[in-house]
Write a structure and sequence with these properties.
By secondary structure, the protein is of the alpha+beta class. The chain has a domain of 112 residues: Aminopeptidase (3-Layer(aba) Sandwich), CATH 3.40.630. The chain is built from 6 helices and 6 strands; from the N terminus they run ααββαβαβαββα. Strand 1 and strand 2 form a beta hairpin. The protein is globular and about 50 Å long. The structure holds coenzyme A (COA).
């Protein structure tokens, strides 16, 4: 979890808006209870990768059948708002570790408060393909322009089995 000891100013992913968000808005989002930032930091507490989580709900009418089945009008879910790795640390598996942490968090939340799915708004087509590696599926398969994806909490165990070496 992001704490005062972590240095955010040098964080440099290839997406400037994500760097700026970490620098300027992560603290106020935490204080306002609108987004929690999880980080991986180096030995000097410099953030090298981060992800943000918030509670959300999706309107049942916007959900594909697998997500909507048997749910109330608002489907409870966990939202991954942002995910980024400093360019100097890309390809080391850091973002993958954050995603595995997020999926474990969704399982824990589901046990205590019910969380039917994890939702992601992918940044672009590349990021969309990246999330599909974890089993995320299109929220609206009919809309080619939509970059929203979901993974049922009930399917997380399968992803963890596949992605975590035993
Ligand atoms: C996407 C991003 C978070 C990945 O971070 P990372 O720490 O380098 O990721 P990891 O090291 O955990 O994973 C790298 C793996 O993803 C694969 N990968 C990278 N881009 C991919 C893509 N577009 N589609 C499919 N796989 C991809 C790599 O080939 C590598 O695979 P391997 O483990 O089999 O070798 C990082 O590139 C980034 O910050 N990009 C800019 C912001 C962004 O797009 N964020 C996504 C927000 S929705």
């Amino acid at each position: 979890m992001l704490a005062d000891k972590h240095h955010r100013t040098e964080f440099a992913s290839k997406t400037e808006s994500l760097n700026e968000w970490l620098r300027k808005y992560s603290g106020q989002n935490r204080r306002g209870n609108t987004a929690a930032t999880w980080v991986i930091a180096d030995h000097e507490y410099r953030v090298v990768a981060y992800a943000t989580l918030s509670m959300t709900s999706v309107d049942k009418s916007d959900c594909p059948p697998a997500l909507a089945k048997g749910t109330p009008r608002q489907v409870p879910a966990l939202l991954v708002g942002r995910l980024a790795t400093d360019e100097r640390f890309e390809g080391m598996g850091l973002a993958t570790q954050l995603v595995l942490h997020i999926l474990t968090t969704a399982l824990e939340l589901n046990a205590t408060a019910a969380c039917r799915a994890v939702i992601v708004n992918a940044l672009n087509v590349d990021a969309y393909a990246w999330w599909q590696r974890f089993g995320f599926e299109p929220l609206d398969p009919a809309d080619d322009a939509s970059l929203d994806l979901y993974l049922l909490t009930a399917d997380i165990a399968k992803t963890l089995e596949r992605m975590v070496p035993s």
